[in-house]
Amino acid sequence: MPYILVAKHLHVWFALLTFVGFSLRFLWLIGRSDLLHKRWVKILPHINDTGLLISGVTLAIFFGYSPFAVFWFGVKLALIALYIVLGVLLFRTHQNRLYQITLFSMSFITYFFIIIVVLTKPN
Ligand code: HEM
Fold it and tell me: Could you tell me the superkingdom of the organism this chain comes from (predicted)?
């Protein structure tokens, strides 16, 4: 399999896992689970997100996408920035549940739009 197909497969798996991990940590957050404070729970998302970033940048370089020249790619990166900010706010503040559920819902909608953008981009 050409290496770029490997990068694409890995990217899609990293993208899926990032949301699965995010949702799990959200459930542990509102359930006040001790699991949230385990070392591996803090480290694994960074490893996965690094893989997501490296595979994404590899694809962007291979296909020659610039966020300033390719509209959908610029929109995707802006949505990813928003997704990261929402995640930081969700896990770094000790807020009430309504606030946490609101932030998670906004993250979910943002993630959904990232998927819509990549699935509807022009070929
Ligand atoms: C939450 C984060 C992300 C999600 C959910 C996500 C999702 C996806 C998915 C599902 C695809 C496959 C689309 C297809 O099969 O045609 C894809 C492709 C791609 N992604 Fe991501 N991605 C994320 C982050 C990133 C990042 C950080 C970058 C670059 C810095 C990036 C760059 C790309 C590129 C260049 C492609 C290839 C598009 C093409 O085939 O023309 N992605 N992404």
Answer: Bacteria
Q: Which residue has the tokens 């990032």?
A: 18
> What is the mean predicted confidence (pLDDT) over 35-53?
97
Is the pTM of the predicted complex or chain greater than 0.90? Answer: yes
CA-proximal residue: ligand 1, atom 4 (nearest): 15
Number of domains in the chain: 1
Mutation to probe ligand 1, out of 61, 71, 118, 123 (largest number of atoms < 8 A from CB): 118
How far apart are the C-alpha atoms of 52 and 21, rounded to whole Å? 13
Tell me: the pLDDT tens digits for 22-40? Answer: 999 999 999 999 999 999 9
